[in-house]
Amino acid sequence: MATDLVPNQVVPPAADAAPQAPKRRRNSRPVPLWRDLLRYRWLYLLLLPGLAYFIVFKYLPMYGLTIAFKDYVPFLGYSGSEWVGLKHFQELFTGPDFGRLMFNTLLLALLTIVFVFPAPIIVALMLNELRINVLKRSVQSLIYIPHFLSWTIVASLTYLLFSVDFGVIANWIHGLLGGPKTDYVAQAEWFRPLIVLQLLWKQTGWGTIIYLAALAGVDSQLYEAARVDGAGRWRQFWHITLPAIRPTIVVMAILTSGNLMDSGFEQIWLMTTSLNRDVADVFDTFVYYIGITQGAFSYATAVGLFKGLVGVLLIFGSNWLAKRLGQRGLF
Fold it and tell me: What is the pLDDT of residue 38?
């Protein structure tokens, strides 16, 4: 064979071969905690105000939840009040108001999910399609403004627009349709539509900020490649835009689920009248009415604790469901 005539040669190593990384010492000690704290002291210093806020206003007041299991008397204090266990929870679940409060709260939550939650997503997608930057920024600024108005101003504007006496929109509808005038503010059947309209007007613009930020992170080269492949606007939206903001939508849905039992005290209380109280009463207003006006502190605390526990369960449940559906959960 010809190969047997070739003498054995030593092949030198390649010049461009990467040098081997030095072996780590097995006895290397971890950096002490105090040294890390000293190194990043300014970051931890910036963390202190927020941490102090949550400790003082969020965690320390949790000690007051113990009165939900007591017959609390302010003169006796937390420790001196009599322990009654689950008495107030039994009164809540067996009382005549529980079914009505649960129905009103869940119905408002359902309307919020169906109409209010998708609204910022739709508006953000529409603004993302605008190519005139001046028009886009002007619309953004206009729809942000209602968020900074208090619920008192929003309720006052609602009365000015829909009141039976001097409501601008109410009189316009009456002139258009004729017939007897309708007091939209006082009638029970119009309470929930007005609440939804207020939420849409006040929160939609502010909610678009998160989705517009998610859309800004989409690589423009994906759209260029899709156009080269012949994809139209709908195909680009379905295969690029929507998957890009899907993780944001899932996270916002999980966070929203924890507030389903929180209907908002100020808005509901300002829109409640003697004619629509049956459909307007929710857990938030019931806690104020029972706890503040009637002095049933323990019973009101039990109602609030029940509402908070339901919110926690909804967050964990929605997070579990998101992971089961193949999405990235909140935790």
Answer: 86
